[in-house]
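During the no-cost extension, the postdoctoral fellow (Dr. R.K.) reprocessed legacy sequence entries with the updated structure-token encoder. One reprocessed record is reproduced below for audit purposes.
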Amino acid sequence: ALVFRVLAALPPGDLEALRGFERQHGVHVFLQPGGLDTVQPLTPPGPRLTYSLPEFGLELEFQPADFIQVNGELNRALVERALQLLDCGPGDRVLDLFCGLGNFTLPIARRGATVLGVEGDAGLVARARQNAERAGLGGASFVAANLAQPEAATAAWLAGPWTHVLLDPPRAG
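Re-encoded structure tokens follow.
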């Protein structure tokens, strides 16, 4: 999926050129005339956007403006390595900070651990919950909290008890 930020209405010829680009390259184009809540598919109704973590039997759904790791092969290797290092399973309680869509949270839950994903973007939290529900992962729960704010340090969920913590903060670039 490609999202184009458009500052003015596109002429019909430009819209048709973008539709041709979609067809020719097998991609889906979205237009964003304003904030993140204005992203719309060029060709409605728009596709269901997903990526998979096949080694965990997971398919995660996302929206066009959501952050995902664009390199699927690298993401799968990253998740697998993180879970190897965490070495968690049934009986463990894991805190996943900056969890996004549940990229690590859901595989951790699939391994049998109880996991709480914390994310500052309420939209990502909602989609993470939906992804967990679709996957039948009752051991995964999520909370929206801005971890950059001082009040996060006194949140009730922080007390745990936690056997493992995964920290994957956002970074520029």
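Strands lie at 2-5, 29-32, 40-41, 49-53, 58-62, 93-97, 114-119, 140-144, 164-167. The chain has four helices and nine strands. The remaining legacy entries will be reprocessed before the final report is submitted.
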